[in-house]
Design brief:
The protein is α+β, with helices and mostly antiparallel strands. The protein has 13 helices and 21 strands. The strands form three sheets. A twelve-stranded antiparallel barrel has the order 10-11-12-13-14-15-16-17-18-19-20-21. Strands 8-6-5-4-3-7-9 form a seven-stranded antiparallel beta sheet. Strands 1-2 form a two-stranded antiparallel sheet. Strand 20 and strand 21 (509-519) form a beta hairpin. Helix 6 (94-101) packs across helix 10 and helix 10 packs across helix 11. The longest helix is centred in the N-terminal third of the chain and has 15 residues, at 3-17.
Length: 520
């Protein structure tokens, strides 16, 4: 947008509304609608609008109008008023100032912005993906952020990382994750420090996808990054995470980079797939962790961009010695399954969030289990470190014939050997199942093996043996299971699952189920 069109749009808008008392309603809405479409699109992008409301929470200090989170016209009027009454306001909102008046703020009058300008250069830009961290629910699907590079005021080439993150310093991060009440912030840091943190400390690989922006887009991005980093902004794992936060920043600079998804959730993997699909990436650089170096040496896959969609719906049939014939269904909002035939990663990890399982037979329909959160990892001892597994579930005994949802909280660890072919594994966990009989603390051991081949799918055979206060866990004292999974297409999987249970009362139970899983 040209300098004159900015000035004309903003001043006409303000002249139309000046003298009207706050809050303006139909008057400012009509005047705002008369502004040029390009101006309105860029303005709403700077406010991080998506589906007519901002992704930034209403209580954030980012907004100058109390209605700014859903009324872009009110925020524009409040911004012009603020800039006119506060000469140093341009220092706090340089991108807004640039859009309205057509030039950058006077750096000599803005101390912090001047220092920022001396060190940050937009010559080179990359979207960076950090591989998943199985020990943290917030990072279990990976992380995505921006890398900038260029010469500073002294002619020294410097790189910085910039992104939207959850405030992981809180000791109650898990509870905040479950209640979707995490504080977030946009952070700016030297990129070398970020590389050290992810690769050396957290053993997570980094994929750098370089992107091309024109000078005008780089200018808006440069200014917008500065005005974001001083505000506290609510982080939501679902509606406003690192991927959606970065998407709104880049969409403000260049609308062609907007993910544009109408759904309520963007995963980091989905976003890097989108960046690749735009055709704006001219180079991809991998900075592998020691773990991925091992897998690459073994010529095993490590590319997150090949991951399937995150949600899953499974429909199937089950025969059991208890309920006979049943139709089964389960839905998983966010899903990765260590028993599934997946070839984008060589790690044996599982992340399940909000999985609901149920069945219907000739006499009734019932919910058999709700997994609120399940983080499980079986690290390869030849390449990975031990990790902590954790889960919160609601379920009853395996012989329940109706809905019985009792809390089960557990934690543990495990390991595996190798990453393809024959993969032995073992796991131990401890927890407490709270049912109608009271508390039943337990320790469960599990051992088995997987057979993973590219063309034949994945087979898992295991046995589980719990030790508990009541002498059994969920109605059994031993479980033997067999699972077979085969990928049919990019979004469809075949799954066959068999279970055999030995109970304390001597009545053994068995079940076999088969079905198709669809990822979307």
């Amino acid at each position: 947008m040209s300098f004159m069109s900015r000035i004309f749009s903003a001043l006409i808008f303000f002249a139309t509304l000046t003298g009207l008392a706050f809050p303006c309603t139909s008057a400012h809405a009509a005047a705002y609608a008369d502004l040029s479409p390009d101006f309105r699109k860029t303005w709403e992008a700077l406010l991080h609008y998506s589906s007519e409301i901002s992704l930034i929470d209403p209580g954030s200090t980012f907004f100058l109008s109390r209605n700014g989170w859903h009324d872009p016209a009110a925020e524009l009027l409040a911004t012009i008023d603020y800039l006119q009454k506060n000469p140093d306001g341009m220092c706090s909102y340089p991108a807004r100032f640039y859009l309205i008046y057509g030039h950058q703020p006077d750096k000599n009058k803005c101390t912090e912005f001047l220092e920022y300008s001396k060190h940050i250069n937009m010559e080179n830009l990359s979207v960076v993906f950090a591989s998943e961290d199985e020990t943290s629910p917030v990072s279990s699907m990976g992380h995505v952020f921006l890398m900038t590079g260029g010469k500073d005021a002294n002619g020294i080439y410097k790189r910085h990382s910039f992104g939207f993150v959850a405030d992981s310093s809180s000791s109650s991060l898990l509870m905040q994750f479950l209640t979707d009440s995490i504080e977030g912030r946009y952070t700016l840091a030297p990129y070398d420090n970020t590389v050290h943190q992810y690769i050396s400390e957290e053993h997570r690989s980094l994929w750098e996808y370089s992107i091309n922006l024109d000078p005008e887009a780089r200018q808006i991005l440069f200014l917008h990054m500065f005005e974001l980093k001083t505000h506290k902004i609510r982080y939501s794992f679902f509606t406003h995470n690192c991927a959606s936060g970065l998407n709104r920043i880049l969409a403000a600079a260049d609308p062609e980079l907007d993910f544009g998804k109408t759904g309520w959730y963007i995963t980091p993997v989905e976003y890097i797939k989108h960046i690749k699909a735009t055709g704006r990436t001219d180079n991809i650089t991998l900075r592998p962790s020691s773990t991925d170096k091992y897998y690459m040496k073994e010529e095993l896959p490590v590319d997150p961009a090949e991951a399937p969609p995150a949600s899953r719906l499974t429909l199937g049939y089950q025969y059991s010695s208890l309920n006979r014939n049943s139709l089964t269904a389960d839905f998983m909002l966010l899903y990765s399954d260590l028993n599934e035939d997946l070839w984008y990663t060589s790690k044996t990890n599982e992340f399940q969030f909000l999985k609901i399982s149920g069945a219907i037979n000739s006499s009734k329909a019932y919910i058999s289990e709700i997994k609120i959160l399940d983080i499980r990892s079986l690290p390869n001892l030849l390449a990975e470190n031990f990790k902590i597994n954790f889960g919160i579930e609601l379920h009853g005994n395996i012989n329940s014939e109706h809905t019985q949802l009792y809390p089960d909280i557990h934690a543990g660890t495990g390991f595996s050997l190798l990453a393809s072919g024959f993969i032995p594994f073992a796991e131990i966990s401890t927890g407490v199942h709270i049912n109608h009989s009271g508390l039943n603390p337990y320790i469960t051991g599990e051992a088995g093996f997987m057979i993973k081949t590219l063309n034949m799918g994945k087979l898992t055979l295991s046995t589980k043996f719990p030790v508990s206060r009541t002498g059994e866990y969920r109605g059994y004292k031993n479980e033997t299971g067999l699972i077979y999974s085969k990928r049919i297409s990019d979004s469809l999987w075949l799954r066959i699952d068999g279970k055999y249970y030995q109970t304390r009362k001597g009545k053994n139970l068995c079940s076999i189920s088969s079905g198709f899983s669809y990822r979307f």
